[in-house]
Amino acid sequence: MDNHQKGLLLTALGVLIISPDALLLRIVSVPPDQLVLWRGLLNMLGFWLIVVARHRAAWPDAFRVCGLTGLGCALLFTLSTFGFVLGNHFTKAGNVLVILASTPLIAALLSRVFLHERLPLRTWLAIVACLFGISLIVLDDTGSGSLTGSLLAMLAALGLAGNLTLARSKPGVDMSPMLALSGLFTFLLTFGWSGHIMQPAVADLGWLVLLCLVMLPAGFTLIQRGPLYLPSAEVSLLMLLETVFGTLLVWLFLSERPSNQGLVGGTIVLLAMIIKAMLERQPLAANPVRA
Fold first, then answer.
1. SS3 of 290, please?
2. SS3 (DSSP) at 99
3. CA distance 242 to 26
4. One-character DSSP codes across 121-168
5. Residue from 100, 103, 102, 97 nearest 139 by CA
6. Global pTM exceeds 0.85
7. Of 246, 164, 216, 159, which is closest to residue 35 (Cα–Cα)?
8. To the nearest 5 percent, what fractions of the chain are helix, strand and coil?
9. Spans of all domains in the chain
10. Dihedral sign (CA 56, 61, 62, 63)
11. Which of 132, 174, 226, 245 is most buried by its number of CB atoms within 10 A?
């Protein structure tokens, strides 16, 4: 398996693992500030346990090697967490998804400007097709959100794209350990803001542990490793599949059937990804193509 295929496999598996995120957030009944706080606390523990399991006694070195670049990745991922969770509180989820779907374009532009990466035409076409498909999925939800929610969603898109691009800027260095530091930042900032920790109900705490201690750390660790092998635009492009899979899970378990237009949008996203994969005759090199 070459590096490009390895990157695709790691990222796609990570996206599949985090796909129930929206479903579990709907199930949990916790105030938004406490949801961010517990998400940060449990993410910190979950990501750290993964680092220890992978590196054993040498786990501190996994953090040190990331340097200031890793610190930047942690801060950007923290911004993305705040933007995503709070954006869904201030505006409709559809509005957040529309704006978050701009992540591949932002990552592509950041990579072009700062890393001088030149993406194949098929990647740009796939990005445009996926953005169109995602827009169809949530078109019925647009037009009723607040400016605050839209700005927070844009913060999430910028944070995620910036994190993946920054991780790509240091070839050969695995930035996934810094997600544990991001969890710590998220917890400390939220605690300083809210000033207290609320004990969730037993059922809610169980869902939070499953999501934030197990699923998100495992999934995002795989996704964060994607830029080791793929341009950040391709990693964020694959993450658009979370919207499709997440919508299907909510439909299956909560009987929230998408509109016919939403089903068409999901089909477009899946077809774009399949066609792109079929056109990948020659895998991209592990190192970015320089202009």
1. strand
2. helix
3. 16
4. HHHHHHHHHHHHHHHHHHGGGTTS--HHHHHHHHHHHHHHHHHHHHHH
5. 97
6. no
7. 216
8. 80, 0, 20
9. 3-8+17-279
10. positive
11. 226
Separation of alpha carbons 95 and 89, rounded Å? 11
Show the tokens assigned to 24.
Answer: 């579990």
Question: What is residue 210's predicted lDDT score, i.e. its pLDDT?
Answer: 96
Task: Please identify which residue in the block is written with the tokens 């869904």.
Answer: 88
Rg (CA), the chain: 18
In whole angstroms, what is the distance from residue 231 CA to residue 238 CA? 11
Q: Are 187 and 37 in contact (CB under 8 A)?
A: yes
Tokens of 125: 């076409």
Question: Over the stretch 11-21, which tens digit does the pLDDT of each residue have?
Answer: 999 999 998 98
List C-alpha distances in Å: 236 to 100, 121, 159, 189, 206.
10, 16, 12, 26, 29
- Judge whether 182 and 75 are in contact, CB under 8 Å: yes
